[in-house]
Structure formats: C-alpha cells, structure tokens
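Q: Structure tokens for this one, please.
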Amino acid sequence: MSDFHAISPLDGRYRQKLAHLSDYFSEFALMRSRVQVELRYLLVLDAAGLFAPLNHAEKQAIERQLDQFTDEDYRQIKEIESRINHDVKACEMFLRETLGLRQPNMIHFGLTSEDVNNLAYTLLLKEYLEREQLPQLRSLLEQLATLAESWCAVPFPARTHGQMASPTTGGKEMAVYINRLLRVYRFLRAFRFRGKLNGATGNFSALVAAFPQYDWIEFSRQFLQSLDLEYNPATTQIEDHDTWGAYFAIVRQLNNILLDFDRDMWLYLTLGYLVMEADAGAVGSSTMPHKVNPINFENSEGNLQISVALLNGITDKLGNSRLQRDLSDSTVERNKGV
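A: Here is the predicted structure, written as tokens:
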C-alpha cells in the first residue's frame, strides 16, 4: 500500500519520520518477538535437563532463527494463522516445521499464549525505551542545555496571569524545562518492566503435572532475569499490566511537560519574544506568503494531546480483566504504538 492510501497519518503523512518505529510496534515486530521468546524459552528448558539434550545441529538451527527473522518467516506464520485462527499457536507450528527437532513437544512446553505475549510485548517496549525514547529525550535535553547556556544572560520578559511581571532571562526559562524533563529522563532510565511465565491460570499447572519435583517458580524467576525483566510472582492467566500502566504514566507526564513547552514557545513567538526563520522555499500561508507559522509546535501540541488521551484509555483498559482473563485487552495492546 502506498503512503497516499494509508488510513492513518502515522503510515501516511508522517511515515518518513516514523517508519523505523515499525521495529517495535508492527505486527511483524510482534511475531518476531514471539518467536524469539519461544526460542529463548526452548534453550533455557533444554538447559534444565528435563528432556534429552538438544544436539549441536538443533541448537544451531535455534540460534539461526534467533538471529534472523525474515519477511518469508512472517508470511509463513500468517498463512498458518489464516488456517487455524490463532496467532501464537501459528508461531509454535512454524517453529515445529522450521526447526525439525527430534522432540518438537519441547516447543511451547507447558506455556499458555499469554506467557509468550506478555514477554514479547514487554521486550518490544523495553527495546523502544532504550533505543529510541531515551536517546531522543537526551538529545532534546542537550539542545535545551545549549540554549540555556547561550541565553543565560539574555533579559527576557516574564508574564504572570498573562500580564507583564518582573523580568527573567531566556536561559533560566529553558532551565525550567531542563529541570522538569531531566526528572522524567531519570525515571525512565531507571524503569524496570515485569513479566510472567506461569501457565494458563498462573499456577504452573501443566509444568508441575509433567515434572512435579522441579522448582518451576525458580525456573521462571531465572528465565525472566535472563531477559532483564522483573519477576511477577502471582498473576492470573495474564500479566496484570500494572508495570505497563506505570510506564505509560511516566510517558503521559513527559507528554504533558512537552505540551506545556509547546504552548509557552507558541506564546513567546506570538508576543514577539522569539522569532522564527522560514526554511528556504517554504510558504507560511496560501494567501500570505510572508508569514512564518509555528506549525511544528502546533502539530506537536495536537499529537501530544492525542497521545495523552490514548495512554489514558489504554492504561484504564489494561488495568482491568475479567476473572482469569478476557480478550478485550488484546486489541488494546496492539495500539500501544499509536
């Protein structure tokens, strides 16, 4: 589908700026992450010594699949899913066909779909935070620090209640936002996601039935630690999503600070305290070409408001699930990237 047939502006107007985020929020990325969770679990299960050990060729096949997930792999999984109408089971069946293990029942052994899903989604969020969000926020802080330093002695009009007040400096006003954003940056950098791996109702039932003497709680804890995730010791069929809610709350706080920044910059431009330069060849108005409009601040404001509204809705929904679970959270989870 070409950009100009896209339903969402994320895949149309903004595609050039956002296309790389498909590595974290696309259906392809989710399938890749599910396969990686299944394979990592398979290797840890093998190391537990409960089954006859994987041979060298089998381990090599697993490592190859871990290192490379292709478009053709994705198409094969989606073709299987179209026949059986189950996405996680399609991943399992794909791995059974691809790996050709002597003991194929080791794949997905004792797990429920949510064991795979909660880890797959969480690892994608963790990667997005570390590879995209934190570096981007750090870059913004560095740019603001440059402005704060260069404007530290520049007198700047101040307003309270919209009226003229005692003056400030341009550097100090940038420092206000540095201070606020730096706190959020530190929260995000220290943030730890949680995960669960405990079966269909959170009791390790299938695993215990197969190997009753084995310490599955410790197995689960160590597996999650190997993924750099905190262990959630008591859940229903689904991980409770409270850690996602905590993360989204920090992101919502970040968005609100940036909203405040956008609006202040817009007002400074309106009052003439700051001046914008037009890009070469850019037109500010269809009828007033001499204008330079603060469209980046305005677009940022609108998009941040949409993000805050979606994060509120997603957090409210994911914090609730009927009894052991219902599927209403699934469609919401797929919209995190929006």
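A few notes: The radius of gyration is 25 Å. The longest helix spans residues 113-150.
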